[in-house]
Write a structure and sequence with these properties.
Length: 673
Amino acid sequence: MKPKTLAILAGVMVVLGGLVFLKRSGDGPIGITKEVELKRMLPEDLSSSDVAKLTMYAGAKPEEKLVLAKQGDAWIVESHFNAPVLQTKIDEYLKKLVNIKGEFRAAAKDDAGLKDYELVSDRAFHIEGRGKEGDAPLFHVLVGESPKYGNMFMRADGSLDIFVGDANLRQEAGLNSEEIGDAPEPATWLDKTMLKIDKEDIKRIALTLPDKDITLEYREKPSEEPAPEPAPADGATPPPPTPEKPKEYEWKLAGGGYGTTFKQQGVDSLISKLVALNATDIVDPAKKAEYGLDAPKYVARVTRTKDDGTDEEIVIEGGRPDTAGDGYLRLASSDKDIVYKTNRYGFEQLFPKGSQLFDLPKLTATPADITAIDYKAPSGHVVLTKDGEDWKVQEPASPLPMIESKPTSIASALASWRADDYSTPGAATGLDAPAYSVTFKTKDGASHTIDIGAKAVHTDGFYARLDGGTEVLVAAKTDIDKIFAAPKDLYERGLLDIAEDDIKRIDISRDGQSFAIERAADTWEVVEGDARTPADPTKAEDLTFDLNDLEGDDLIFGDGYVLGGIVGTIKLTMADGAEHTLAIDTERDGHYPVKVDAIPSAFLVKKEDVEKVLVTPAALKPAPPAEEKPADAQPATETPTTDAPAITVTPASPTITIDAPSAPAPAATPPNP
């Protein structure tokens, strides 16, 4: 064929190819339903209404079944306290389930052929449907791996034919994990809506809380009497009558509460909660006593107007064993025994704190105006005074460095303090003998006192009294934690403030033995009497870091604190000749009292931290080289040893006092056994 003819034919082919491409592009992608004939995986005549029970489980965990059952027109989670099922969820799932179709993929010969698809019975996800109670199953399908998003491998129980389903029934059941053995959870199916009310229908809300009652009513606003119309002149046409104004309503405090007014925002939040009262979970109704629902201390009585014009009272009972934790609710006016769980925020929307509804007492000082703070707490008595702009700890006094931010933080919490809640009189408040009390003074000579009593029964806080008043308030626990800082938290509690590289020598005495490690140029040596041996440099450096990291868990204040049973001493000699001595007393309750130099206060250091630095010579030496053994030699059984054996405590050690930084305390020598 001539070249010219070939060129013409090639051009025709290009044009035809382009036309085909354009035609296919216009048609869009060809779906799976157009490419292959899909098979209905469940019986052709099956409909959603035929299914009355669904049982789902992972083959690896057949005992953890999720059972959904139809009860009248509704569905329940039979395996989870007969909790209600979200109707939209079950309707959607049944629709996908009964209409699912599959593309044939393979015919397995045995379980080995099913394994690659995760369709072996003890691995796959099982879905079994039944109709009337006692009837044979309507279907039983097994779901395996997902080849791509939205699909899954599946087969009918008893069949070895493998299909690719056009929906992922495992994922639709709430299992999104890749682990095929995970059991189905009820959470996906639960209807957690406890109550729904139209806002306009709510007429009255009566709240009973453990330490107060509050009643709100939606009442008609008082109408203003209109001004009298002037009489028309003789012969004049009288003006038309003034049209009657529509009635207006407002929420009013009808009982209890704090004062006579309330925050409208707080009432709006309460009503919004009632309009759609949702929970986070549904729990075992047999455990009402555990939830505080056997004799509920929380009750909300909500009066609403029904469509027929009559009023209905809805009763909600609540319990909260932990004032900082979750709450539990049940609809007492319902014939269904369902217990709902809600988080702290949701519970306090329905049963609000006093500060959410009312303006409670507060302080309006500024931190800069506060000049002195005096407080007493179980942890001790603290007096803070201001010298110019600087705070200092007057009591308990210590030469340790003060944490500069602490007094400022305490002053800020006091200046802006406000009550978090209140209680009606009669509660066991503990304010007759306050466990905590703080008084502060300001530049203008004013003084304020806050007394703190027993733990509050509704709010996460404690009952409080402001400036000796008679009202029972509540201080939030967060405020108490800020204001009543423990004395130990006012000071830096690091035992040493040195640079590790400046340590020249460390002398350690324990159990009647003494040794030292000494820095020599870039190496360390273990010194035992006249003998010197190389130290493991890493272990030696680690010891310097551990020493510098020592921190007291607590402090023992007092001048000249006397140690009563020395179990060890550590003396550090620095490059400039300065010395620091740590004298370690007998262990008590998991801590060792430690004196540093001549500081009057003693540190209580955790046992494990002390024993990390009060080491033996062997703990600092290089490990002996491993002995080479014949290949057929049996390993010898060795008794394990520790580098830092427990400290031997001497029952009757001499009492000594550390007087000066340069005078290390002698180690007590235990008697020979």
